[in-house]
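Can you give me the bound-state structure? Components:
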Amino acid sequence: MKTLNILTLFPDFFRSPFETGLLSKFLQRGDLLLNLVDIREFSDDSFKRCDDYPYGGGSGMVLKPEPLFKALDSLDNRGTVILTSPSGEPLNQEKVKGFAGLEDITIICGHYEGVDQRVVDEYVDFEISVGDYVLSGGEFAALIITDAVVRYLPGFMSNPGSLVEESFEGSLLEYPHYTRPENFREHQVPPVLLSGNHAEIAKWRLNKRVEKTRRVRPDLYKQYEIIKEKQR
Ligand code: SAH
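Here's the bound-state model for the whole set.
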């Protein structure tokens, strides 16, 4: 990914996350151009209103089509357009990797009850949900999508090996981690990890991954069984 446009009513929301930690360092290096677009600037309304009542009645407000159409048309590198929405396809690691491979991405942050459907029909390539719960605004979801995708961009992770061994790779969750000290308040580090026997350690870690996935994510575990069956 080279350009990331984020269309939002609240550009300030992103200040702290993009100005701290790994994300800020990565942006400073200039490998990714982040473009925060204030939807309000594209409103014709003298009060810069971007929402209006829903046709057909019902509670809440809807983001009007004009400011969003104009904001989207103004972008030089619009690329693939993602709308954050609880009724979208669920985000997962596979989609994240796919997005990371795209040149330019534009994320639209919805608000109130959501955006006028004509925006979706005209511009949106993917409607993405970050989970089966409702957030107050698409900014939270946009941050999640951005953080997950940026980890896959070259140069973001100082140790790209961590990307291979983590949760969801091979449809398994990750194994438990331990660091010093060996004994902390009577809690002992599993002896195998101190053994120096790499084959045994790998076996122990795989067992832990399988055990945890079966316990907390039966859906993933089913996929893992299918993968294993195919490998046989
Ligand atoms: N009326 C909508 C909820 C709107 S929430 C419904 O019932 O489906 C307001 C905005 O927050 C949405 O437009 C979307 O941009 C964002 N949002 C809320 N929950 C989300 C989720 N789980 N994933 C992605 N975006 C979400």
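A couple of observations. The beta strands are 3-8, 33-38, 51-52, 62-63, 80-90, 104-108, 126-129, 183-184, 187-188. Residues 84-87, 109-111, 113-114, 129-131, 133-135, 137-138, 141 surround S-adenosyl-L-homocysteine (CB under 6 Å).
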